[in-house]
Design goal:
About 75% of the residues lie in helices and about 0% in strands. By secondary structure, it is mainly alpha-helical. Keywords: Cell membrane, Membrane, Transmembrane, Transmembrane helix, Transport.
């Protein structure tokens, strides 16, 4: 009986210590969340307070100017950012999702080239953005002769966020229960019908989360555009994919580098506009994610 009571006492001690560890772990998680929210709130309050004098219609109606900072705007940067993000979403999201479908549903895991592809995708997700800027400068702008245009910037940023889209989409597809696939196939559906009508709708919430992270990174990038030679002072709006362009992060960088106090206020107002575009874009993606979560 003494031998049998020893494991029971060990289980009782473990059960007594487990709530304490769980409680401490929960406190650590809540503390981390509170710290992150506090720093975000401090950032938002600071930039809104600094840029409040310039948060008016002239900010998005006027073009940038280095001679009259009190009336300068950021219209070319806003439209350039929207062009880049729109083209990046059109190119990176479908390509990444289709690549994830192939790797999860069709690829033979025993083949060496499929394992090599998976390894390279994981490595590319950790490559610094400046390296993609060098790639875009050498391959897209010069070798493909696209020049320093909107298309060059969008292709470069698409390559930057593509590994993130693929990895997040693979995880979302992998999280779909196998019973859904088996039930669909048992009812006579083909593999593609099962993927299109069952697997993809069930994985939309996870794919949307990965897309939010990918596009959020893309909208704040400046290093690739610096390598591509994107102009910081553009007084006209892009009219197509072959137009010269600038983006908000480059304009903010240019404004902050100037010694006049008016440019610091203008940079803070531009940061507020950039955050507003980011939050609006993320809100649409979160709405789509929640809509599909209710269905499934």
């Amino acid at each position: 009986m003494a031998i049998l009571s020893t494991p029971r006492s060990a289980v009782q001690l473990a059960s007594k210590g487990r709530p304490l560890r769980e409680h401490l772990f929960r406190i650590a998680l809540l503390a981390s969340l509170a710290i992150a929210i506090a720093f975000l709130a401090m950032l938002i309050v600071y930039v809104v307070e600094e840029g409040w004098p310039r948060l008016d219609s002239t900010l998005w109606e006027n073009q940038p100017s280095i001679r009259r900072p009190e009336t300068a705007g950021i219209q070319s940067g806003i439209l350039g950012t929207l062009w880049i993000i729109g083209l990046t979403a059109l190119m990176a999201l479908p390509t990444g999702i289709l690549a994830a479908i192939y790797l999860e549903e069709y690829a033979d895991k025993t083949k060496w080239y499929n394992r090599l592809i998976e390894l390279n995708i994981s490595n590319l997700a950790a490559v610094p953005s400046i390296v993609y800027g060098i790639l875009g400068l050498g391959m897209i702008a010069r070798w493909m002769q696209f020049g320093f245009t909107v298309m060059t910037g969008a292709l470069t940023v698409s390559l930057l966020v593509l590994p993130i889209v693929i990895i997040s989409a693979r995880e979302a597809i992998r999280a779909v229960p196998p019973s859904i696939r088996e039930g669909s196939l048992a009812l006579g559906a083909t593999q593609w019908q099962t993927i299109y009508r069952q697997v993809l709708p069930a994985s939309v919430p996870g794919i949307a989360t990965g897309s939010i992270l990918a596009l959020s990174r893309a909208i704040g990038e400046a290093a690739p555009f610096l390598m591509l030679g994107a102009a910081t002072l553009v007084r006209f709006n892009p009219e197509g994919v072959w137009s010269t362009f600038t983006v908000l992060p480059l304009q903010i960088y240019s404004f902050i580098a100037r010694p006049q106090e008016e440019f610091a206020i203008l940079a803070a107002a531009a940061i507020v506009i950039l955050l507003a575009i980011l939050l609006l874009m993320n809100s649409v993606a979160i709405w789509l994610r929640n809509r599909y979560q209710k269905r499934w």
